[in-house]
Amino acid sequence: MTNIEPRAGQKPVPLQISHVASFYRRYPGERVTFYTRLDVDETLSGLTVRITLPAGLVLEAYRSPSYLDGALPAVEREGDVEGVCLVWHLAETSPPGSYEYQVTATVAPTECDRTLESRAVVTLGGADGRSISTEQVATVVVLAKGRYLEYLPALYQKDELMGRFLMLFESFWSPIEGQIEALPFYFDPLLTPPDFLPWLASWLDLALDERWPEQRRRQLLRSAASLYQKRGTKQGLQTFLEIYTGEKAQIVEHRAHDFCLGPRARLGPGIALGTGNAPYTFTVVLALPPLSSAQGKDERDRQELERRRMIEAIIEAEKPAHTRYTLCIKVEREA
């Protein structure tokens, strides 16, 4: 995306342009569509949009924004007899919004590999009679012969019919090859598609809660192996809670302070490990940010209760079975 750069002393022009291709590698006879988008932030006048197709691309169809009511563009020839330029002269005043254009072309036959450039240029007329313009270029690499010819004897590599025949199979199998090449990314918790997260979690016997934000589910899945190694430990519980809440939990283990070995030690009913004669206890303290204030009080209370229940479920799943705990959640005040 490109912005029009203002001259010194001028205010910024509220206009952006982007120009991309549907494919960046094509063979003769295949189609490619160029998408051009203008983002206008305020009412402008004197806008002109030019989309150029170079020699080697044959114009098939085009589509302009509905705002133009199907107005046809002017077709201008470039220096090369095969190159064309579609020109849209927008209305005297163009309201704010996004204007999208599509131009579809077919790749012409060629004897050698080529690199074709399509340009999108937008021009804005100034009040002083001068105009400023900006452009973006979309590049398409055209291959004269299919890659599969490289795997055949030299005799077949010179056969034009064989080259075109193999292009068909290459076009059919190209999406499958792309999936195979991207296969390692499906096993990366940070890169795999969201729909694959539960499948990937099943490999680790981990059930992902769909109520968790996607980014936290990914982080949990990435840390699952190390969390299993630390399960039942203070560090493991802290890590798990930090993944869910985004805040580091403070865990205080209550050890024996009323039982000290020494000459004065006396064993009896009044001696116990733990605080308040409650052995194997600990306290979890969490300082959490408040939930969105845009919601009503009842909805906030419901979400606060759900968040507390989720934290309790995590502690119950990660703590040693024989221990007991106290949960203290401190919600920070909004600034």
Describe this structure in words.
With 335 residues, the protein is α+β, with helices and mostly antiparallel strands. Among the domains are: 2-144, Immunoglobulin-like, CATH 2.60.40; 230-257 and 273-331, GMP Synthetase, Chain A, domain 3. 26% of the residues lie in helices and 30% in strands. The chain has helices spanning 154-157, 160-181, 183-186, 197-202, 214-229, 234-245, 297-318; strands spanning 2-3, 15-21, 25-26, 31-40, 47-53, 57-63, 74-77, 84-89, 97-107, 114-125, 131-142, 250-254, 281-288, 324-331. It is elongated. Residues 6-11 have low confidence and may be disordered.
Question: Strands, helices and their partners?
Answer:
Blueprint: E1 2-3, E2 15-21, E3 25-26, E4 31-40, E5 47-53, E6 57-63, E7 74-77, E8 84-89, E9 97-107, E10 114-125, E11 131-142, H1 154-157, H2 160-181, H3 183-186, H4 197-202, H5 214-229, H6 234-245, E12 250-254, E13 281-288, H7 297-318, E14 324-331
Parallel strand pairs: 3-11, 13-14
Antiparallel strand pairs: 1-2, 2-4, 4-9, 5-8, 5-10, 6-9, 7-8, 10-11, 12-13
Helix pairs in contact: 5-6, 6-7
Distance between the termini: 36 Å
Beta content comes to 25-35%
Biggest sheet, spatial arrangement of strands: 3-11-10-5-8-7
Helix content: 25-40%
If you consult CATH, what is the topology of one domain? Immunoglobulin-like
Summarize the structure.
This protein is an alpha+beta fold and 335 residues long. The protein has helices at 154-157, 160-181, 183-186, 197-202, 214-229, 234-245, 297-318, and strands at residues 2-3, 15-21, 25-26, 31-40, 47-53, 57-63, 74-77, 84-89, 97-107, 114-125, 131-142, 250-254, 281-288, 324-331. The chain has a 6-stranded mixed sheet, with no helix packed on it. Strands 1-2-4-9-6 form a 5-stranded antiparallel sheet, with no helix packed on it. A 3-stranded mixed sheet has the order 12-13-14, covered by helices on one side.
